[in-house]
Amino acid sequence: MNAQFISSVTKPDSSAMLEVDENDPAFKAAMTITKEDLTKHLTILASDEFQGRETGYPGNDLASAYIAGEIKRIGIEPITGDSYFQKVDFKWISWDDISITVGENRYKHLWDFLSFPDKNVDLGEVDLDEVIFLGYGIDDPKYTDYKRAKIEGKVIMINEGEPMDEDGKYIISGDTQETEWSQYPEKKLELAHKMGAKAVLIITKDIQKMLGENRRKLLGPTVVIGQSEDEEAPVANSIYISSNIAKDIIGSKSKKMIKARKKMAKGKSKSLKLKTDMKLIQKRKDYSLAGNNILAYMEGTDKKDELLVVSAHYDHVGMKGDDVYNGADDNGSGSTTVLELAEAFQKAKMAGNGPRRSILFLWVTGEEKGLLGSEYYATYPVFPLENTIADINIDMVGRVDEKYKDNPNYIYVIGSDRISTDLHDANEEVNRNYSQITLDYTYNSEDDPNRFYFRSDHYNFAKNGIPSIFFFNGVHEDYHKITDTVDKINFDKMTNVARHIFYLAWKLSNQEADLKITNGKA
After folding, report:
1. How far apart are the C-alpha atoms of 292 and 61, rounded to whole Å?
2. Per the UniProt entry, what are the Gene Ontology biological process annotations, in alphabetical order (predicted)?
3. pLDDT digits over 294-316, tens only?
4. In the 8-state DSSP scheme, what is residue 458?
5. CATH code of the domain occupying 93-286
6. Fold observed for domain 20-91+288-510
């Protein structure tokens, strides 16, 4: 049974007067987080000088140098040596040349077909006089296309999905429920690779939708965490093709294809050798770049072997031509907030009130490329993940969305109860006792169509069973546009949110009780 995650709103009690002891060390430290400091840092990080902070580019290096310089100024020492950086190697992958030609007809990538460069190896130019049609490319006890198929070194063509009978029921499941052969297309590609296929052409019914969803992304390079040059792909090369390309390849065998499809509807597969005059070009262009995660470590006292992570990504989407995408809210606001939190904790420590648990302030790169910096840290953690009690992630906290235009004293909270309800309760408690802002859990709903829970860096901690909470101001019209600039930041709201997050980090790093895991992995 799926857990039912909180998706309501907690509003502050307007009738209650909040009384805070001004000698409370948490309160005193939180008050060192100021609007003026947040404004100063964000104005620098989101300036044109930093060129949109794109991973692998000079502007990102400038941003990492600035953040590291501020950590040093604050007085937090590097973990080892004299560097605050965890180097992250990236590989940028794109198509240098890609096309399909059948006879006299040349088909264009991103218009007639689609192939993801990071999911394919470099095939170069391949001249084909034969393509093997192999049904759905399935090998299952209840249905197989591989019974007598010999495909080693061949290019095969398959249908997407899985066969259905004349009553609309799937052959394999026996009902209207798809199986993993439809849900996980890579299963077919793994099988084809195992059987020696050179490449797989996948006939895709709604190819235009797929092209529309991926065209913009694939116009530029795909970025992955660095891999060795000679690493073998675990799946066969894959090309998603239109029905027009398929018809061109089938040619005069259309009647035999109709008969084959009728057999498949009865659970019997029929492969066909299709004679063709086809050229497939898949030439990849790879190059390596490096980026840095930035780490500021504060050792705790009696519980120093336990670690709290406070994270934000500092990269953005860079430049297009002469236009700078400054990324003030996304995520200059989160990066700046973590800087202020680190300084507040350092001031408290210098006053004799250091945290009981250790804290890692973590600025990650590569978020805009697919959460890559946090994935790298979770794969190669500097501190054992089993000792990491929670991740507090801050991504876009400087703006006010349409819902709260008349009440900017709010924040959306995502993920707080998904692994540990204790984390959710701690966040609510510090809000009652200190912050008194509106905590909105709308985007925490399990059926949230935006799926924000899976779209920021906390998720790479949550995947590993680490309680995680994500603070977010909601969407606005300037997201990933050149208009996401500092002048649109609400610094009063940002200050209140930063102080709230500080109170939560203070509680988690100092409380006696450990967070209990209540819902298992994300």
Report:
1. 8
2. proteolysis
3. 999 999 999 999 999 999 999 99
4. H
5. 3.50.30.30
6. Aminopeptidase (3.40.630)
